[in-house]
Write a structure and sequence with these properties.
homodimer; 139 residues; alpha+beta; Arc Repressor Mutant, subunit A; Dna Ligase, domain 1; three-stranded mixed beta sheet; two-stranded antiparallel ribbon; DNA-binding
Chain lengths: 139, 139
DNA sequence: TATATATTTGCAATGATTTCAAAAATGAAA
DNA sequence: TTTCATTTTTGAAATCATTGCAAATATATA
């Protein structure tokens, strides 16, 4: 769990000026285990920041993704969500309840892919879908 | 390369009535290596079928995905595309030219994921992004 | 303090996808 | 074949997450 000062430092190192909004959004996404959408981030920070624009949230999240500070998930085809967890992990989305959970990896994804030597890889996501344990038992 | 009769049979086995539109759409997606969008499928088949509705294409592709006959890719966050290749493979999307290519896998994805025993997995997609060989060299 | 630059804001626009109800096609029964 | 019910297709309108844009605000520099 990083402190606010550490997160601020991380933004500066990435060449991003740590405005109040940016730091709050960065902190929220980094601390959350919920893979929030832009809308969720907006709702969560609106009060704390007094005023906040949904556009700012979208712009800022894009800024962070482009800087490699967080990642964007497209595991749900109707909305994007964001992930501040920097460890290599896969995602599982339950077709029934919609919950998205992290799954540990035994090894990095890339070790399994052939012929990658001539490519330059910036991002890798492994998405699994089906039924989570709880929903599986209900059926 | 499956024949039209084989594809028809496959639809029937899946409990899907092989209408003219469905068979044409199924054949197109199964034979294509281009990961077409609904729009692309629509444009490609409009003439051949005389009349075709984009809504039919969307509905039919969803029908096939739900039946497990093809898969839907969300590797590009602005549109969905579809994949008729049933072999286990990963996808690479070039950030520069947008092209999506298949990559062979040494082993199945799932072998690398921990704690999956209590889940029921229906779909798995590994998405890689970065620069393809051609775009990498240009920079 | 003045001035330039970077950031935020809110509303309008975008565009892929879905909804919906009518029209057409198909299958079963008579 | 004719009739009737069911399934499929169609096209136009609606949806909604995301982006564009131009004005307002905040911050850095001279």
């Amino acid at each position: 769990m990083a402190t606010r000062a550490e997160l601020r430092e991380e933004l500066v190192k990435a060449g991003i000026r740590p405005s109040v909004q940016r730091l709050a959004i960065f902190e929220y996404v980094r601390q959350s285990c919920q893979h929030p959408t832009a809308e969720v981030v907006y709702e969560a920070l609106c009060d704390e920041l007094g005023s906040l624009s949904l556009t700012t949230v979208y712009n800022t999240l894009k800024l962070f993704v482009d800087a490699g500070l967080i990642s964007m998930l497209t595991i749900d085809d109707t909305f994007r969500c964001f992930d501040g967890n920097r460890c290599c992990h896969a995602h599982f989305r339950c077709d029934n309840c919609g919950k998205i959970v992290d799954l540990q990896m035994k090894k990095d994804f890339l070790s399994l892919v052939e012929g990658l030597d001539t490519y330059s890889v910036n991002d890798a996501q492994l998405y699994l879908k089906g039924l989570c344990p709880a929903c599986k038992n209900k059926k």
